[in-house]
Write a structure and sequence with these properties.
The complex is a heterodimer of chains A (about 290) and B (about 200). With about 290 residues, chain A is an all-alpha fold. Chain A is about 55% helix and about 0% strand. The termini of chain A are far apart. Chain B has two domains: about 120 residues; about 45 residues. Chain B is globular, with a radius of gyration of 20 Å. Chain B is mainly alpha-helical and about 200 residues long. The longest helix of chain B has 23 residues. About 5% of the residues of chain B have low confidence. Classes of the chains: A mainly alpha (about 290), B mainly alpha (about 200).
């Protein structure tokens, strides 16, 4: 059915409960007589309800995050009963949590190798570190301290990385994307603009707040999981948020997502935007990071 | 807030709970989420699902359920607790997803889960048509296809359609937000809706 503007208006007038009982009955009779119309009503109902469901899902994600922060979600006390039917995923996809220690260990080893290479590349006879300095940490660092690479010990102490002067170091020897770990903070604090007394008022704004903050938190979780693609998708949704604190956070984390992707061009552009925004709380960090990677 | 606080007002009246869900009160949504999470998720985790899958399924089904409350497809019935009604929908969907995964060879059952001694508790006699609205196919359509299509629209269309479809604002309000006449807003709304429908084959 070629949908006309008039038909569209009638359909949604009906779906939203409009019209007198007689008008509604007449419309229902028309639907019974015209299958194409009935079909289009169903399509529009599906789209309408589906878009609402998506909004509700975002709201529920926000509620989940809030309840989790409040410590009200009860899991962690339920143990799988080995006597019941146990489901073993064949391809391991059901156990993503089991892989994190291995990823963390692999990431730590790579960082250690990178640091060794970096110190080795210094023009003075900079010794190879005997220990991995606990300065730069990947996102999952719980096992980092347990990694003891078998390195050649040296007699000269190596100063910590931050204090090290780099005037003789070629900029090309420094991997600028390593700065991600220094600047990424998994804890996002977004000041709630609604006081508890106002709960229930301005429901659409409150919903929007819940939805926007859920996107930011999901993005941060994705960045922590090294999934910058998903993080960018989530952040792009809220970079024009009506809430300044959400907008600021989104801008900053977009820059970090580009950095994680090693897309320095977009990262720098984004950092410049953050640095130029007087209302952005991350302005100083952005300026600092921009200086480092330029 | 403690768990008791979120649901305190609704303890004695499921009707009040239903009415406040209709009004989209956040407190009611929070109570619903907390109740259903505590009832449903441990049940499926105990039977082998992981927390993330359980949570995703809960959020999908609950989002659809709430939209059905809002459009009056689900109507309050005396003697039926809303959270218990939802629980049966959730368990039904979880079982279906398990069957589907087993048929695809994605999971291997070490022992057969049925007979489940408390499965009768979740047999509500819900009509197949009711349950179909929560099926995986429908969930994928809503939360993947439709969501992706909507987010690919231009920002002005997303705003208009969100105001219209989700917030059910009047054309007059929408026109005011856009700085247009009501007639122009009507045309804009139609064009955006038509584009969404046709471009993405919804």
């Amino acid at each position: 059915m070629e949908l006309s503007e008039e038909a569209f208006h009638e359909i949604h007038h009906y779906l939203s409960g409009g019209g007198t009982p007689d008008e509604r009955t007449a419309f229902e009779e028309r639907m019974r007589a015209d299958q194409a119309l009935a079909g289009e009503v169903e399509v529009q109902r599906r789209i309408r309800n589906g878009l609402k469901a998506n909004e509700y899902k975002n709201l529920l994600k926000g509620i989940h995050a809030q309840l989790e922060n409040d410590g009200l979600l009860p899991l962690g006390t339920v143990d799988a009963d080995p006597e019941r039917g146990k489901i073993i995923p064949l391809n391991g996809e059901g156990r993503p949590a089991m892989r994190w220690p291995y990823f963390a260990a692999a990431a730590s080893i790579l960082v250690a190798i990178g640091l060794i290479w970096y110190f080795n590349s210094l023009p003075t006879s900079t010794p190879v570190a005997s220990d991995v300095p606990a300065v730069e940490k990947p996102a999952q660092t719980d096992t980092a301290k347990q990694i003891q690479p078998s390195l050649k010990p040296d007699t000269v102490k190596t100063p910590p990385r931050q204090e090290q002067k780099k005037p003789q170091t070629s900029p090309s020897n420094v991997d600028r994307t390593d700065f991600f770990a220094d600047y990424f903070d998994e804890k996002v604090e977004l000041e709630n603009p609604f006081s508890k007394e106002k709960l229930g008022l301005s429901p659409s704004a409150f919903k929007q707040w819940g939805s926007d903050t859920a996107h930011v938190r999901q993005a941060v979780r994705s960045l922590a999981a090294r999934d910058s693609e998903t993080a960018l998708q989530e952040l792009k949704r809220v970079e024009a948020s009506r809430f300044p604190q959400v907008k600021s956070a989104a801008s900053w984390y977009i820059a970090l997502a580009y950095l994680q992707q090693k897309d320095l061009k977009n990262c720098k552009e984004q950092l410049k935007k953050v640095a130029a925004d007087p209302e952005n709380q991350n302005r100083e960090k952005a300026t600092e990071l921009l200086t480092k990677i330029q | 807030m403690t768990p008791q606080d979120y649901c305190k007002r609704y303890r004695d009246s499921d009707l009040l709970f239903y009415q406040e869900l209709l009004l989209e009160k956040r407190e009611a949504f929070s109570c619903l989420y907390l109740q259903t999470y505590r009832q449903c998720v441990p049940y499926v985790i105990k039977r082998g699902s992981n927390e993330q899958q359980a949570k995703d399924l809960l959020q999908d089904c609950l989002a659809i359920f709430v939209s059905k409350i809002r459009d009056r497809s689900f109507v309050y019935q005396e003697g039926t607790r809303i959270s218990t009604y939802f629980q049966s929908i959730y368990i039904n969907q979880w079982k279906k997803s398990l069957d589907l995964a087993a048929r695809r060879g994605e999971v291997s059952l070490e022992s057969i889960i049925s007979p489940d001694e408390d499965s009768e508790a979740f047999e509500t006699g819900l009509a197949a048509a009711v349950l179909q609205a929560y099926d995986e196919e429908e969930r994928l359509w809503i939360f993947k296809k439709l969501d992706r299509a909507f987010n690919l629209l231009a920002e002005d269309c997303r705003k208009v359609l969100r105001w219209f479809y989700v917030e059910e604002r009047s054309l007059r309000d929408i026109a005011g937000e856009l700085g247009m006449t009501e007639a122009s807003a009507t045309v804009k709304r139609f064009k955006c809706a038509k584009y969404l429908r046709e471009k993405f084959h919804l």
